[in-house]
Design goal:
oxidoreductase, 2 domains, seven-stranded mixed beta sheet, alpha/beta, single chain, Synaptic vesicle membrane protein VAT-1 homolog-like
């Protein structure tokens, strides 16, 4: 089978499309024929080795895929061959086949396609838990979300719109503002990333906002905390500011964390504010809260069936073009989810121009003449190098005498011509 394999932590060149053996099914697992894969910012961090306890390279990348059940392992209940499912395994999702423990697999609602499932499941599950399980979003509240144009950001905006009278402030790059303003679910107030947007928020909400959702970390933590009103909730669910270059930078990681002011419990007590964090990967794979996550997935699928939310897909890529897809996400140019399709044909690669293509074409005769000149020049150089120092000195003396005689003859001739002219 084809799979996206990380051969070593680092840049895009470490990501390869390789042929791997088809997985064998263990007890409690489902074998899934993958039709679509979700690309998340966490995948970029894995590639760089910027997460805790990554697997040993080489390994198959990916945390999210959707497709069809091809085989059911022993001890699995509630699933049958042919079921349309979406899975959130710990790695190994970006392949044509994947064996996943059934606790990480969810049935897709009727009418949902694999591409929609891969664009929705992880992002909307994260957004749902952030808004309703942790922040307690309710009618009339205000919300500030970073990376508002990304997959989770768009999910947050859509889910927030299911609650009446919620004011949404979205922070993103200036280049995305026009597209977001024209979207089906517009954001109330768009703010430019990199600017000090605090004053703009205060103009609309002088007292501050009720909720801040931060996936960046770094100095945004301090700004976000200062914008919280009393009883406000600040939730950190990522640290994408750590990913500043193609490869891991310890300097970037250290800078992001050191830019965060230290907030003591006493300060939280005095300010009447809440500071919390959320990590879906740890919650599922390390802390075992799969049933809690399943409840959130079922709720977003119910909202999808009711037509209240709809996944926003930025673009779809072939497995072979995963590096280009990663680069687009790294550059923060996507609006919505980036999806990989194993059945999609890769983009044609540009032909490498031949060497000397721009040079003037030469005839065979001209080339031969040039070769002869080169040979003659090389022979002359070799002969010159063989001459002794004494021979070279003699040549210099002869040259000097010749030059002197020529000059004398010229002078004598000139005198004779002058005598003739005077006579």
């Amino acid at each position: 089978m084809r799979a996206v394999v990380l051969t070593g932590f680092g840049g895009l060149k470490t990501v390869k499309i390789l042929k791997k053996p088809e997985p064998t099914l263990n007890e409690g697992e489902l074998l899934i024929r993958v039709k679509a894969c979700g690309l998340n910012f966490q995948d970029l961090m894995v590639r760089q080795g910027a997460i805790d306890a990554p697997p040993k390279c080489p390994f198959i990348l990916g945390f999210e895929c959707a497709g069809e059940v091809e085989q059911v392992g022993e001890g699995v209940e509630g699933f049958s061959i042919g079921d349309k499912v979406v899975a959130l395994p710990e790695f190994k999702a970006w392949a044509e086949l994947v064996a996943v423990p059934s606790k990480y697999v969810f049935k897709m609602p009727p009418g949902m396609t694999p591409l929609q499932a891969a664009a929705m499941t992880m992002n909307y599950t994260v957004a749902y838990i952030l808004l309703f399980e942790m922040a307690g979003l309710s009618q009339g509240k205000s919300l500030l979300v970073h990376s508002a144009g990304g997959g989770v950001g768009q999910a947050v905006v859509q889910l927030a719109r299911t609650v009446p009278d919620v004011t949404v402030f979205g922070v993103c790059s200036k280049g995305k503002h026009e597209a977001l303003l024209a979207s089906a679910v517009p954001i109330d107030h768009l703010l430019e990333r990199g600017n000090d947007y605090s004053s703009e928020v205060r103009k609309v909400r002088p007292e501050g906002v009720d909720i801040v959702l931060d996936c960046l970390c770094g100095e945004e933590c301090n700004r976000g905390y200062s914008l919280l009103k009393p009883m406000g909730k600040y939730i950190l669910y990522g640290s994408s500011n750590v990913v500043t270059g193609e490869t891991k930078s310890f300097f970037s990681a250290a800078r992001s964390w050191w830019q965060v002011d230290k907030v003591s419990p006493i300060k939280l007590f005095d300010d009447n504010k809440t500071l919390s964090g959320f990590n879906l990967r740890h919650l599922m794979y390390q802390q075992g809260e799969t049933e809690f996550v399943r409840g959130a997935v079922e709720k977003i699928f119910a909202l999808y069936k009711d037509g209240k939310i709809k996944p926003v897909t930025d673009s779809t890529w072939a497995l072979e073009d995963v590096a280009e897809a990663m680069q687009k996400m790294h550059d923060r140019k996507n609006i919505g989810k980036i999806v990989l399709d194993p059945g999609m044909e890769p983009k044609p690669k540009p032909a490498t121009p031949a060497k000397g293509k721009d040079k003037k074409k030469q005839s065979s005769e001209e080339k031969k003449e040039e070769e002869k000149k080169d040979v003659a020049a090389a022979a002359a150089t070799a002969t010159d190098e063989k001459k002794t120092d004494e021979e070279k000195k003699d040549e210099k003396k002869e040259e000097a005498l010749t030059n002197g005689d020529s000059a004398g003859e010229s002078a004598d001739s000139k005198d004779k011509e002058d005598d003739k002219a005077s006579s």
